[in-house]
């Protein structure tokens, strides 16, 4: 149960940040032996988020925070990272109802994917995320795009359709079987000639590309353990102003919880930290589905 939150009502939250040696900041993370606590000052309260690898360590952090701030703290019942609710279902429903819906072709691809791949269909980007990808490609005026993780081609279709007629999408995946489902949908959408499908480990495909800025848009949605390597290969190949989009950056909330230490979680934390510190990029992380990061090359 390694996450817990608390709200301390106060008209002077900045005094607590001062006590935590973070004077002048409205947010700070304190590292203790057993874990961390983030302090966030708002106008009328101090929000605390404690995290530790297990329940005993979390109690240690909570006690240390109360001592450091010299105040009683009423902590929430601890939860694990995968119990964090990213977006309230009512909000999710409302935003779907107020976004342009997927068209017939995308809906048919979603149905075909479910029938053909069963549980694996959960890997497909959602209709709202697909719409976001199309919107971003159109807004950025991208002409050359690259995608890592095609599956049955839903996100590829959303990206390719938003490119101009002479645009190109290099689409990377290891699976001939899954991507074979995509091809007829790209054809029916009239974008098959824009999609250059490269079957093989995406890292090999990326490394074989010229190491110079050529892409206006990149989308990463494949094996999570390789995200740091994909990011390292793609950023130098983005033109200035080019946009990198990464999916699943929350890992279902597990990135927040130090108890989760599988390779995917470690890799995702690593890439999330690397991007926010990368002075080649400006980035914003969005609570869309399982978390989407937008990183624009300076
Ligand atoms: C989450 S799915 C992609 C979903 C897709 N973006 C969509 O909208 O339907 C991940 C894909 O990554 C592919 N993949 C996994 N490891 C890979 C690798 N090393 N290189 C290339 N593709 C890989 C899988 O075959 C799978 O199709």
From TrEMBL:
Query: What CDD domains does this protein's entry cite?
Result: AdoMet_MTases
User: Could you mention a single GO BP entry for this protein?
Assistant: methylation
Instruction: Check the record and name the PROSITE patterns matching this protein.
Output: SAM_OMT_I
Q: Name one GO molecular function term.
A: S-adenosylmethionine-dependent methyltransferase activity
What's in the keyword line of the UniProt record?
Answer: Methyltransferase, S-adenosyl-L-methionine, Transferase
Q: Which domain of life is it from?
A: Bacteria
The record's annotation in Pfam families points to: Methyltransf_3 (PF01596)
Instruction: Report the protein name in the record.
Output: Caffeoyl-CoA O-methyltransferase
């Amino acid at each position: 149960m390694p996450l817990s939150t608390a709200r301390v009502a106060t008209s002077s939250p900045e005094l607590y940040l001062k006590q935590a040696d973070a004077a002048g900041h409205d947010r700070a993370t304190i590292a203790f032996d057993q874990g961390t606590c983030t302090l966030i000052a708002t106008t009328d309260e101090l929000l605390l988020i404690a995290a530790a690898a297990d329940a005993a360590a979390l109690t240690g952090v909570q006690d240390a925070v109360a001592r450091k701030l010299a105040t009683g703290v009423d902590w929430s019942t601890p939860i694990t990272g995968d119990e964090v609710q990213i977006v309230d279902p009512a909000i999710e429903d409302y935003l779907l109802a107020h976004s342009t819906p997927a068209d017939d072709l995308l809906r048919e691809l979603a149905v075909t994917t479910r029938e053909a791949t069963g549980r694996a269909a959960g890997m497909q980007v959602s209709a709202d995320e697909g719409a976001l990808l199309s919107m971003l490609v159109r807004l950025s005026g991208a002409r050359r795009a690259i995608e890592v993780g095609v599956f049955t081609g839903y996100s590829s279709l959303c990206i390719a359709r938003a490119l101009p007629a002479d645009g190109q999408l290099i689409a990377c995946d290891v699976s001939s079987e899954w991507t074979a489902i995509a091809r007829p949908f790209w054809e029916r959408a009239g974008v098959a000639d824009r999609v250059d499908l490269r079957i093989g480990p995406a890292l090999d495909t990326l490394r074989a590309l010229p190491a110079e800025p050529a892409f206006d848009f990149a989308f990463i949605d494949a094996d999570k353990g390789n995200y740091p390597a994909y990011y390292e290969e793609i950023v130098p190949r983005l033109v200035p102003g080019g946009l990198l989009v990464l999916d699943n950056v929350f890992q279902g909330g597990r990135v927040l919880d130090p108890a989760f230490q599988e390779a995917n979680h470690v890799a995702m934390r690593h890439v999330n930290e690397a991007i926010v510190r990368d002075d080649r990029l400006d980035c914003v992380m969005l609570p869309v589905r399982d978390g989407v990061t937008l990183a624009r090359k300076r």
